Prior knowledge:
Blueprint: E1 7-13, E2 16-22, E3 32-39, E4 46-52, E5 59-64, E6 73-79, E7 82-89, E8 99-104, E9 131-134, H1 153-164, H2 167-175, E10 178-180, E11 191-192, E12 195-196, H3 204-218, E13 234-238, E14 242-246, H4 263-273, H5 279-289, E15 296-300, H6 323-334, E16 341-344, E17 350-356, E18 364-370, E19 388-390, E20 394-400, E21 405-411, E22 423-430
Parallel strand pairs: 8-9, 9-10, 14-15, 15-16, 16-18
Antiparallel strand pairs: 1-2, 2-5, 3-4, 3-6, 6-7, 8-20, 11-12, 13-14, 17-18, 17-19, 20-21, 21-22
Helix pairs in contact: 1-3
Amino acid sequence: MGFDWGVASGDPSGDSIIIWTRISPPAEGGPVHVSYVVSTADEPDRHGKVTTWSDLDWTVKAEVKGLSVGKIYTYAFSCPGASPVSGQTWIPLRDQTKLQLLIANCSQLRGGAKEPNAYSALGTAGCTPDLVVSIGDYIYDTDNAIALSEQNVAYYRGLYANFRSKSQVQKAHAYGPWLAVWDDHDIKDECFSGGVSTCWPPHWGDVKAAALQAFYEWMPMRVPPSGRLEDGWRVLEFGPLATLVMVETRLSARTKQIDEGDQTDWLKYRHDHSVLIGDRQFAEIAAALQNPNPRWRIIANEVIIADRPDPPQQNDDTWSGYPGAREKLLRLLGDCPAYPIVFSGDLHTAWSANLPHPDIPGVFSALEFGAPPISSDTSGTRWPSMQWQSDLNGYLLATFTMEQLTVEFRQMDAAPPFSSPPSPAMAYTLRPGETVPKGG
Length: 440
């Protein structure tokens, strides 16, 4: 036996965090009892034991409570017959005056042609974020495409096992805490709550359940308080500095992408009936964003909000394809003090944009920054609504203080020869209420 998939931690909530590992399946079968210890200076060690078995895919998760903000904890798992494995974690913020986030998305491997090399930067000089925020397309259903009817829990478990076997990914998870949500490629390309854009498969409920089961088995994330696995949104508060909202736009309430057909009828239908986030999620998000206390309001969001460069396309999968939902969100953001900061993904390019208010000409609702793909092919898409755009692999690093926000786009090649250390592609320094300048 061995802990061949490393460790992970994440989903901080108050003074607690989730720690994770996986033990290789024992030859004799049966349950395995895994012990853990969590340590830091000036505090007693915390010990615990977790039992895992095949129904959990031999994954191990434990909630560790009573942690202190500002301290770094080491955690280690062990069991008879296996060498111990360890990582570090903490409760953000480590520095009460600064919050640093690494935004990651889109890590397709192309059957081994690509590597998630950007993750190897974590923990190196200049890349020590408080939290890694993964906004979707962590695994890729198209990396091992099979018929939708065959996409069962074993299929999704295999995708996670393959991705987590990568040394760069193991290093990134051992570095510190993550917050993660899925997007379509973690389930099925262009899926919605009731199926995929091209069909309404009768077995879709089984496919969705299998994908979500594997996600919660393999990621250091808690089951939502509602008990509905698709309710993957989160709200994290960082005192007077920031509130972070991570939205879920894919499985909990999204309506089907509609073929445009007649343009006039299509636009009216999408405006009146389109849903990306449901009423419960919107109410929770609104309450968090309308809190007057934090200096910054941060939204981690799977798909791009900025305007498309042309009329809505057939099966438009972005917020632009759901104009009613988009306007509702932009009105909410526009009512917030200063400008909320949105971090988005999915587009396979890096970008920045100012998001116009839907009702007030010349006024903006929020600023949006698009994280480059970790390893997926870049798209080459150019959108006139962008202030800046570039095709690159890498990550986005955002640093918030009470005085300013610094956003850095860093490039790291996803195919040999790998670039190391990361090279800067673009950087912004903005004070609350400032907009993104054209071209950087």
